[in-house]
């Protein structure tokens, strides 16, 4: 089934296989499915990115500075490096028509770090995972957040009202 394919893909990935069973199940619940447009760049080298992908169908190509690196097929995880190392995308992933060997239009399952990481993955962390991921316990983390919050909140001053910045 699709679910077992996704779970297998997660377990085979060096980064995602650190998640325990409960976290994997929650991650599977958060995945959305997306069809790729032909010739569309899915990940552009050097850009910012918060999304991790699993190939659902078809074949995608990984290139770096225009050099061919690898073809990704069903069940392959990609886009994990920018999330793991908090870096820019290290390669370009496209569905180039002249590379396409399969007749199926490529599609992917996507997982967005921005919301799911904090809403779903972190709340499921064990004490050990808190130490591994944050180098501190959950209590210390919350204590620090509460200490820092007053200094970071927007406030009106005598000179002007605070500047509203729309979330991007
Ligand atoms: P990320 O850097 O987030 O975005 C581009 C993705 O391409 C990257 O994550 C990896 O999933 C993948 N990638 C980068 N380099 C290679 C490589 N040498 N071989 C296969 N896949 C790669």
UniProtKB/TrEMBL annotation:
Family indicated by similarity: Belongs to the cAMP-dependent kinase regulatory chain family.
SMART domains reported in the protein's UniProt record: cNMP
Protein name: KGP2 kinase
Keywords: cAMP, cAMP-binding, Kinase, Nucleotide-binding, Transferase
One Pfam family cited in the UniProt record for this chain: cNMP_binding
Entry keyword annotation includes DNA repair: no
Alphabetical list of InterPro entries matching this protein: cAMP-dep_PK_reg_su-like, cNMP-bd_dom, cNMP-bd_dom_sf, RmlC-like_jellyroll
Cited PROSITE patterns: CNMP_BINDING_3
GO MF annotation: an example: protein kinase A catalytic subunit binding
Domain Cyclic nucleotide-binding, residue spans: 15-93
Signal peptide limits: none
Organism: Polypterus senegalus (Senegal bichir)
